[in-house]
Amino acid sequence: MNKPFYKAANAVIKMYAWRQEHASEKCPAHSMSEIHLVCKALNDIALSAAYAAHADEAIEILQLTSDWPMGKSPEFFPLESAGVPA
Known about the structure:
By secondary structure, the chain is an all-alpha fold. The chain has helices spanning about 5-20, 30-50, 55-65.
C-alpha cells in the first residue's frame, strides 16, 4: 500500500538533515528552534494524514513530533516493500 504521508514526512526529515549539515553560527545545528520548526511541519503532515483517513501514519508521525524535542533522534519512515527512505 502506498504511504504518501510517510513519504512527505521523510522529505521533511531529509531537509532537516541537510540543514544541519549546512548550519552556521547564526543558525546552529540541532537548535531547539529548528527542531520545533520541523516538528510543526511534521504535525501539519500528521493532521493531513488524519483528515485523509490514514490513521496509522498520522499516529506514528505525531509520536515522532512528541519524541523528537525530548531527545529521541528521528528515523525515516518505511515506505512500501522497499523499506528505505524516499
